[in-house]
Amino acid sequence: MRTTRLGGVAVSLAAALAIAACGSSSSSSSSASAGGGGGSTGTSASGGSAAVSGGTLNGAGSTLAQPIYQQWGSNLKSKGLTVNFNGVGSGAGIADLQTATVDFAGSDPALAAEDKKGMKGPVLQFPVAFGAITVSYNLPGVKSGLKLDGPTLAAIFSGKIKTWNDPAIKMLNSGVNLPSTAITVVHRSDSSGTTAGFTTYLSDVSPTWKSTIGTDKDVKWPVGTGAAKNSGVAAAVKQTQGAVGYVEQAYALENGFTYAAIKNGSAYVLPTIENTSAAANGIQVPADLGISTVDSSGSGAYPITSQTFLDVYKDPCKDGKESSSTAKALKSFLAYAFGAGQQTLGSGGDKLPYAPLPSDLAAKDNTQLATMTCNGSPIS
Amino acid sequence: MEASATTSGGRSALERSSASRLPDQALQFGLTALATLILLLIGYFFVRLIGQSGKAFSTFGASFIFGNDWDISRNIYHGAPLVIGTLVTSAIALLIGVPVAVATALYVTELCPRKARGPLSMLVDLLAAVPSVVYGLWGVFVLAPKLVPVEKWFANTFSFIPFIGGGGSTVTAPNYFIAGLILAIMILPIVSAIAREVLATVPSENKEAALALGATRWEMIRMSVLPYARPGITGGAMLGLGRAIGETIAVVLVIGNAPTIGHHLFNQGYTLAAVIANEFNEAANQPLHASALFAAGLVLFVLTLIVNIIARWFVRRGTRGMRAPEADADNTLSVYTPSTTAGRP
Amino acid sequence: MSTVSGALIPEISAGRKRRDRVMRGLLMAGTGLALVPLILIIYYLIYKGIGSWSGSFFTTDPNGNFFGNPGGIRSAILGTLEIVALASLISIPIGIAVALYLTEYGNDGVFANLVRYFVDVMTGVPSIVFGLFIYIVLVISHAGGSGFAGWKGALALSLLMLPIVIRSSEVVLLLVPSSLREAALALGAPRWRIIWKVVLPTARSGLVTGALLSVARGMGETAPLLFTVSVAFPVTFNLNGIMNSLPLQIYGDITSPRDVVVARAWGAALTLVALVLILNLIARAISRRSRLT
Lengths: 380, 345, 293
Prior knowledge:
The structure holds three protein chains of three kinds. By secondary structure, chain A is of the alpha/beta class. Chain A has 14 helices and 14 strands. In chain A, helix 5 (about 150-155) crosses helix 7 (about 195-205) and helix 13 (about 325-340) runs antiparallel to helix 14. The longest helix of chain A is centred in the N-terminal third of the chain and has 20 residues, at about 1-20. The two termini of chain A are about 35 Å apart. The model of chain A is unreliable at about 1-50 (pLDDT under 50). Chain C has twelve helices and no strands. Chain C is an all-alpha fold. Chains in contact: A-B, A-C, B-C.
C-alpha cells in the first residue's frame, strides 16, 4: 500500500515537473478528470438514486449553498463521483466559471447580463434550493423571535440605531426586556449572494437604503465589522455580545442562534423551512429560470429568502474545455441535484435545512438539463 | 554575462590550462544562465504586475492611494483606507515589537549567563517557525476575546487621549491594535536575530574600555554598545517593517476587513495584503477590480522594496569594516541578514 | 561626558547603581515578555489541538458532512507534503546552483552583486504577491490543462523558498576554506570536479540545513496557495488538479461556526506546527553536528 502511494507521488511529481519544464504551454495533456477518488466510470446506482457517472467535478461559489454541495459531495463519493466545492462566495464562483477554472458555479442571485457577457459561451442556470437569510443576534436573555420590520432593520444595518433598547426596536417588541448593549453589525467582507439577497430586501423596504447604499453582492457598509463567508459572519456573531448579522438559516440552526421574526404584510414571520418554501410559491419563472424569491409577498412567506443557482456552460466541452467524460459526470451530478438530491433537503431529522424545489420548478430544471451538449452533440 | 566573464578572468591566474576546460565552461555557462534567469524572472514578475495594475492607475490616478472610497459595488477603488491600515498596523508592530526585540537581544548578548544564550536565542527564533495562519487562529480565538475587554477599559479610562479614547463603545472586536500586536509578535524574532548579530560585531575592546572606566553594565550598553550597533538595529527594524507590511493571513483574520479609515486605534480597518486575499477570487473577471487588486499588490511590493532597500543600507552601514560575525548557519533567520553580515571571507 | 569622567572615581553612586539595576531588570523583563507569546501559543495549540488528535483524525479526509463528524485531515497533510516536496525539488537544486554561481564564479563582480541584490529583494516580497503572479501567469491561462493546480501552488512556494535557499547556501559555501579549493586547483583538478568533489561535500550539512529551513518556511505558507491550488477534500496524487493542504484547511476551518470544525483547525494547526518544528530541529541538529568553522 505504502509503496504504491509513494509511487503515485513520484509519478505525479514527475508529470508535474515535466509540465513545469515545458513552460506554460496550455496544450499539455489534461489528466484532471482521471485522478481523485475511485475513478470507475458509470458505477451502478445504489440506494434508489439515478446512475451517477464517475469522475471529479470542481465547483466554487455560494457559501449559502456550500453545505448542500459539500453534503452531496459526501453522499456521491461512494458512487465514484468526487465533487469538490470551494465556498468562495457567489461573486467569486461566477468569476471562476468565467475563467473556466471550475466545472460549475454556485450563485445565489440570477446571472446578470454582464455576468453572462463575461462567460466563454452560453450558460445555463438551474435553481437548486431556497435558503432563508436570518437576522441572527447574540443577545443573552432575548430569545428567538425578536420582531423587526424592514425600515427598522435598514436603520440597524445603516448604523442609525445604535443600541438594542432603541425606541424603534422597543416599539415593535412590547414586553421584551431589551438591554442597552451596543449593536455590533456583522456583515460579509467578500462578494456574496447572501449579501445580494439581504440588500435586495433592504432596498425593497427602505428607499433611503436603496438610494444611499443599494443592492449588490458587495456594498459599502456604513457601519460594522466584515467577516468572510457565511461561516465567518456566524462565528463573529457567536463571539461578540450585542452582535447582529445576516446568515443563512443552516448556519443559524447549526449554531443554535437566536434570530428575528421579520414583518411580511401584517404578520411577523420566522425563518422556518415551511415559511421559506412559502416564499417560492407562485413566483414568476422567466425563460432562463432566473427567479427571485426575495421579498416574496406570498402569505406566510419569510421575506428574506434567497434562491440559489447552479451555473454551468451549456456546452462544457467547447467552452469549459472539459473532456466528454467530465461533461457526462457533470450532467449526472446535476440530475442528482434536481432529483435524489432534493430529498436530502427539508425540515427535521438529518435533512439539510433548506427549502427544496417545488416539483414544477424541478421539472423545468430537468427539461433545461436535457439541452446540455458536448461539442454540439447531446450528452448521453 | 560580461561582468561575470571578467571576474572569472580575474581568477584565471589560479587556473591551469587543461584539456578538460569544456565541462568547466559548460558548468560556468549553465550556472551563469541560471543566475540570469532569476534576474529575468524578477524582471518579468515586475513587468507583469505593472502591466496588470495599469488600468487601475490610469483610471484613478493618485486617488488610488490618497482617495478614501473603496466601493466594489460602484467600481470605485480609492485605497487610502488600505494604505492607512497597512501603515497603522505596521507602526504598532514596530512600536511594540522593536523595543522588546532589542531588549531580548541585549539581554542575550550582554547580560545573561553564557550557558543560557543558545537556548534563549533558539526560543525566540522559534516564534519565526509558527506559520502565519496559526497566528491568525490564535489571534481570533485566544488573543482577541481576551484583549477586547482590556481595550474597552483602556478606551474608557483614557478617553481624553486622541486616537485611543472615545469610550469603550467604539471598540470593535477585530481592530488595528490586535492586528498590530500579532504583527509585533511575528516580527520579533526577525528583529531580535538581526540585533543579536549586529551586537555580536561590537568590538569587545569598546565594552572592556567602558567597564574599565568604572561604567556599570547599563552604562556600558548605553555608551559603547548601542551607539555602535544603532544603524544595524535600525536596519533590522526596517526588515521587520517589511515583513509586517506584507503579512496577509494573520491580519485578514483580525483586522475587521472594513474598507474605512478607523478613527482610533481600536477601530477595524483593512490592509493592502488583506484586501487582496479577500477580494481577489471574486475580482478575477472584473477587469477594473482585478486591476485595482494588482495595483494594491504593486503598492505593497514597492513599499516593501523601499523599506528593504533602506534596511539593507542601514545594516550595511552598521557593520561596515567590522569583523564579520560567525556565520550563523543554524539561525532560522540568517536569510534575513544582508550579504555583508553573512560572513564573507 | 560628565558620567565618563565621573566613572574615573571607583565609587559608583547609589543613583547609578539603581539605574543600572532598573535597566537590567527592564531588559530581562523584555526578554521574558518576548517569550510570553511563544508559551501562550504552544500552550493553546496543545490544549485545544491535542483533543482532536486521534487515529481517525489522521486517516480520514474532511467529508463535507453537514451533521456529525466533519472528518480528519489526511488529505491536507498529504497535499501539503506533495506540494512542498515539489516546491523543494524545484527551489533547492536551483537555489544551490545559483549560490554556487555566486561563490565560485560571480564573486564580487557587478553581475553577481546584482543577482545578490535582487535575491535579497525577493526575500522581501510579500508571499501573497507571489500567489498573484502565478495566478496571472499560469492559472488564468489554464497552463497544463486545468485552472487551479497543486503544481502551480508549488511553483508559488518555490518562488518564496528560492531566495532563502540561495542566501543560506551562499553563506555556507563561502565557509568552505579557499585553501581547499586552491589545493585542488594546484593539483590540476578542473573546476567542476572541485565543486563536485570538494566544495559540495564539505558544505553538505550546511546546505541541508538551509534547505530544510526553507522547506519549513514553505510548509507554513498560506497566502501563495490561496489563488493557485484552491481547495478539495479527497486525497489526490494528481498535482495537476486542485488539492487540499494544511494551511488552507486551517484557514477554511477557522471561519466555521461549528465547534467541531474549529477543533479540527486547532488539531491541524498543532500538526502543522509540529511538522515545521521537527524540520527546524533536524536542521539545527545537522548544523550543530558538523560546523564548518
